[in-house]
Specification:
This protein is α+β, with helices and mostly antiparallel strands and 119 residues long. Helices cover 16% and strands 30% of the residues. A 5-stranded antiparallel beta sheet has the order 4-3-2-1-5, with no helix packed on it. It is flat.
Length: 119
């Protein structure tokens, strides 16, 4: 599989970048977002959490997951760059969206790595 991916991305991504796309640890990024989150020109507040799975244990059964709000990372995002913020210092906000994104083991979005394909 990795060889096929390297072949497919040849000329756009180096081998190291392709290898970093799959660390063997499946992850999901869970994000709450406020109004304006689709406009990357506007700074919006997000609360994110990276959820990793053990492929030997977690894929053949249903799971119930509880994530305390204190475990989320809060920050203001603009142009896919997150500026950290302290949850305690934030004014009350209304979350209007919940996203689930695939992530690689280091919590990076795949699109951030794949963004290297753009001129």
């Amino acid at each position: 599989m990795l060889a096929a991916l390297k072949s497919h991305c040849q000329g756009q991504l180096g081998d190291e970048a392709v290898e970093s796309l799959d660390t063997g640890v499946p992850c999901l990024g869970l994000t709450f977002a406020e109004a304006g989150y689709n406009d990357q020109g506007t700074e919006t507040l997000n609360a994110t959490y990276s959820l990793s799975f053990d492929p030997k244990r977690d894929f053949d059964r249903w799971m119930e997951i509880t994530i305390p709000l204190a475990d989320f990372i809060f920050g203001y995002e603009r142009n896919y760059v997150m500026k950290p913020a302290s949850r305690e210092a934030l004014p009350p906000r209304e979350w209007i969206a919940f996203r689930i994104n695939e992530r690689q083991g280091g919590s990076q979005l795949h699109k951030r790595r794949l963004g290297q394909l753009r001129p």
